[in-house]
Amino acid sequence: MIPSDLRYTKEHEWIRVAGDEATVGITQHAADQLGDIVFVELPEPGHRLEQFATFGVVESVKAVSDLFAPVSGEVLEGNAGLNAMPEVVNSDPYGAGWMLRMRLSDPGEVEQLLDAAAYEALTAEG
Amino acid sequence: MVYGPHTPDDRSRMLAALGIASVDELFEVIPPAVRARPMDLPPGLTELELMARLRTLAGHNRVDLASFLGAGVYRHHLPPVVDQVLLRGEFYTAYTPYQPEISQGTLQTIYEYQSLLAELTGLDVVSASHYDGATATAEAALMTCRATRRERVLVSRGIHPQARRTLETYFGGGDLEFDEVPLVTEGPDAGTTDLAALGRLLADPARPVAGVLAAQPNVLGLLEPMAEISRLTHAAGALFVAAVEPISLAVLAPPAAYGADIAAGEGQPLGIPPQYGGPYLGILACRDSLVRQIPGRLIGMTSDEEGRRAYVMTMRAREQDIRREKAASNICTNQALCALAAAVYVAALGPGGLRDVAATGASRAAELAAALEEAGAPRLHPGAYLNEFAVRVPDAVAVHRRLLRRGILAGIPLAELEPGDPSLVDGLLVCATECTTPEEIELFAWALRDELGARPGVPVAASAEGVR
Amino acid sequence: MSVTGPKLQPTLFELSGSGRAAGRRIPAPPADALDRLPAAARRVIPAALPEVDEASLVRHYVNLSQLNWGVDTGFYPLGSCTMKYNPKVNEWAARLNGFAALHPLAPDETAQGTLELLWELERDLAAISGMDAVTLQPAAGAHGELTGILVVRAYHRARGDLERTEVLVPDSAHGTNPATASMAGFRTVNIPSAPDGGIDLDAFRAALGPRTAAIMITNPSTLGLFERRIVELIELVHAAGALAYMDGANLNAILGRFRPGDAGFDVMHFNVHKTFSTPHGGGGPGAGPVGVRAPLIPFLPAPRVLREPDGTFRLEREGERPASIGRVRGHVGSVGILVRAWAYIRAHGADGLREVSDDAVLAANYLRGRLAADGAYEVPYPGPCAHEFIASGAGLKRATGVRTLDVAKRLIDKGYHPPTIYFPHTVDEAMLIEPTETERLETLDAFADALLEIAREARDTPELVTSAPHSAPVRRLDEATAARQPNLRWRPASIAPGADA
Fold first, then answer.
1. pTM over 0.90
2. How far is B103 from chain A (nearest CA, A)?
3. pLDDT of C230-287, one tens digit each?
4. B265: helix, coil or strand?
5. Which residue of chain C has the CA closest to B176?
6. Site from C421, C422, C484, C487 to mutate, A interface, most A CB atoms within 10 angstroms
7. Fold (CATH) for A7-99
8. How many CA atoms are closer than 13 Å to the CA of B394, on its beta-carbon side?
9. If contacts are CB pairs under 8 Å, which of residues 228-247 in chain B contact chain C?
């Protein structure tokens, strides 16, 4: 089930916007493709994000994937819980498996992202 | 065919199954313009002829000399049990353990190697090995740049010149730079890293330092103030890389004790014969917090689905086949069989045996130093050494050659080890190990005395007669 | 967790017992041997190394070896690895005391035997490849790649061309190729494969330009196919002012049939542990000599092995060839490995080597034909393959849910080492199968039978396949925990998290 209140990138990141702040993670589809996730490399608070540029890396046992920022802004906090339990990205990617919280510099960018229906269509063809 | 089983009948049957008349048809895809010209090679030899030729070639090497040559590669007693283990076909004809269920032999032996080196270095993360000490040192330097995101490294001239040259080649790949830290030229600390110079090099705010590299013992055999170098390095926000000799770790303070972040070294002394340069064993170890930066394979312990303890290559997503252009290093292999040799060697000696090897080398070296001083070749530097040191010999290159003709490999002239360093022209770097006999020491000292004419007031001819 | 099952061994540390003499290997040193060392430099806490008697040590390693699978155990069809038989005379050769005891810094006059062997090996590899000169210094194939690409870089810099910042790499390439490019400071540009498995020429032309330093091509490719457009490709590369690098991993397919130097390749590396039978050792050591055409000779690593007019041999002196890229490792080469390669080549001669490739290619095509005839696995790319071929379990997965990974694990139960799987990445559910020339016809047939039997099992009793292996010393491993909570060294209370003690 793809949460309907989120927006998505073509690279399988999701974003939950609340005012001028947002939470970012990767989708169940991405986590399933990667397999058992073993490590997530996230930027430090204060790091500037640029829409669609890479901001980190997610590693599974047999694969590695770049993480792309859905929108531009500044990192407020990375999910430190993922250091000890990266597997929570597989089990709860939209909840406890969140990756970072950020402040948006241009909320208008959100409109460029896919909504749930569009993302569902994207992954259906995949 | 030389080593294969196919008979003409086998080939006919395979061709028939493929519906072709000759194997040439399978090569038709090669454009005619680039089909091979005949290879100019000598005709194939039978096994008898091959072995005869190899014996002849091996016989042209002089390995019968009384050798005092070290400089990073050392002659040690090799317990035969090491080679017996290496000769097991299940070990040496196996591939990389990508299928862990049928590779537990390889995997566990490498895990044990990692564990043994972790004990020796005091650092918890040991890679499954790099190519050799020089490349491990170069990769250690690159690690400091990745970990600190700085671009400059300081390398003591106490680091072996061949490691420094390799680092220079590796650094040529990008925007990274390195500066050499000079050695003290005079006084009680002569021949060791110049701490004042190090401090000045660390102090440039425009060019922050990622890592500092120093060796223990250093290339001149001298013991370095590693704790002090470590302190200066960390105060500048850089990482400290210790280049170490593994046998010495049985008796010298290990890298972890003086705060090194990374250790690199040549593992050849651990059960691997000199072989004119390789294959050797690159030791690379680091603190836990740097584990994601270390290049190469890592073997980890885990369990199988039925709860059995098992071993597996782990943290693979760091490596080149997965990270591709983003991998820290392109290394695809490890020196697995050499790591096995090292593990068997350390286990065969045990902690007491390894300490005895180091201590015996130290003891013989002290005897050697005394004998050479009496022969007219005193030590070049006053500082403490373990089993290797430099002695002052005028016209060292010529003396070395003349001693060679007497059957003595008198170490290596410093002028050859470090060309272009005028302060090292009149010196020989010599070492002793548990394999060095008192008779060899006496022979070396006698011959050197003869060459130098060094017995005060005694003409050369008379002294040669008098000793023998 | 438990150490159960036949032959599974506790670690050396668990075998250790205080006072279990490791043997009186050397006489005891004087008690005061270390007194002259400053206290600050001495080790305070001894290393907790294991104390094991020799008999227990030998049993430990013999039993561990029996948990392993080597070429000496059975068929090992790992694509792109060339798991051919490792001749035992080579093991004898490398252990000759004259070779083994020689110090790398010994004067040239004492090393004439080894220097002559190295010099001959360089010429042999040049003759085999059509290159003009060879360096034996690199310690592995990947190390050879780095060396070769650094030579390329030095070549362009010497021409004053600093704009060439890119290396073109086919998407089917081994991961070392792009990793090598990065290490040498280049940006990798990936070129897609065409439907027939070769390089997409249009994409290639589009990517080629004044920023291209080199293209790295594996030929035959990792799909087991000879690049039929090779002449055109190399001409385009040279017209653009770039160099052509050949990854020689698949040389076993073309000995005596194709010489890269003749075809215009400027630089290549060899994997002696593949083509030239030196043993894989459980992951190494190998060696990766590099061959170059004449214009690149000045840049080769130093020191080179030289032959004097009087027939003696010596190493280049430091500074003798200033254009060299310098050292890529501590010494002149992994000589112990190179002795084995020399012996292999001398045992074969030109005819023998050509026969090696003939038999390797014939065996691969035969095995491919057995699988293609059945249809249980897709065998893409019609037409002859080289010394290896791709089969795909994609159809099997769609029909039964059984993946190539499961097929591989089930092959273990059938008594075979699995082939290379999931490489190259360009083929779904790939198996890359390379029989080599040293396997009997009966073995090839039995292996084909086993693969086809597994396909039937996948349809009829898939759980048997997906839960394989059943007969290996250990079953499928928890690799996720191994990566999340790495246990990389023994500690006295060492147990895998989550398992029983």
1. yes
2. 18
3. 999 999 999 999 999 999 999 999 999 999 999 999 999 999 999 999 999 999 999 9
4. strand
5. C185
6. C484
7. OB fold (Dihydrolipoamide Acetyltransferase, E2P) (2.40.50)
8. 7
9. none
Does B382 contact C at CB distance below 8 Å? no
How far, CA to CA in Å, does B337 sit from each of B89, B280, B297, C200, C282? Answer: 11, 10, 14, 40, 7
What is the rounded average pLDDT of the residues B168-188? 92
Give the helix/strand (H/E) hosting A76: strand A73-78
Q: How far apart are CA B336 and CA B95, in angstroms?
A: 10
Distances (CA, A) of C318 to B225, B343, B417, C113, C115: 30, 35, 10, 22, 17
Residues of B in contact with A64 (CB under 8 A): 317, 322-323, 326
At C195, the amino acid letter reads P
**Which class for C42: exposed (0-12), middle (13-18), buried (19 or more C-beta within 10 A)?**
middle
Tokens encoding B16: 């028939």
- Tell me the HSE value of B389 on the side-chain side, using a 13 A CA sphere: 27
Q: pLDDT by residue (tens digit) across C444-500?
A: 999 999 999 999 999 999 999 999 999 999 999 999 999 999 999 999 875 544 333
Which band of pLDDT confidence, cut at 50, 70 and 90, is reported for residue B454?
low
What are residue C391's DSSP bridge partners? C431
Q: What is the DSSP string of C203-226?
A: HHHHH-STTEEEEEEESS-TTS--
Residue in A closest to C425 by C-alpha: A63
Return the structure tokens found at B116: 């043994």
* Tokens 């290596």 sit on residue: B412
- Chains with 3+ CB–CB pairs under 8 A to C are A, B
Report whether B293 contacts B143 (CB < 8 A).
Answer: yes
Q: How far is C179 from chain A (nearest CA, A)?
A: 14
If we measure between CA atoms, which residue out of B430, B462, B463 comes closest to residue B449? B463
| Distance from C-alpha of C331 to C-alpha of B278, rounded to nearest angstrom | 7
Helices C441-460 + C404-413 axis angle, to 10: 120
B468 pLDDT exceeds 50? no
Q: What is the ipTM of this complex?
A: 0.96
DSSP B41: -
Cβ distance A62 to B322 less than 8 Å, yes or no, reads yes
Contact status of C479 with chain A (Cβ, < 8 Å)? yes
Low-confidence residues in chain C, pLDDT < 70:
1-5, 21-22, 494-501
Q: From CA A18, how far away is CA A45, in angstroms rounded? A: 18
Spatial neighbors of C175 by CB under 8 A, at least 6 apart, are B319, B320, B321, B322, B323, B324, B327, B332
Chain A residue numbers touching B318 (CB-CB < 8 A): 59
Token pair, residue C211, equals: 């920023």
Chain C neighbors of A59, CB-CB under 8 A: 483
A38–B292: do the CB atoms touch at under 8 Å? no
Burial of residue B32 (CB within 10 Å: 0-12, 13-18, 19+) is exposed
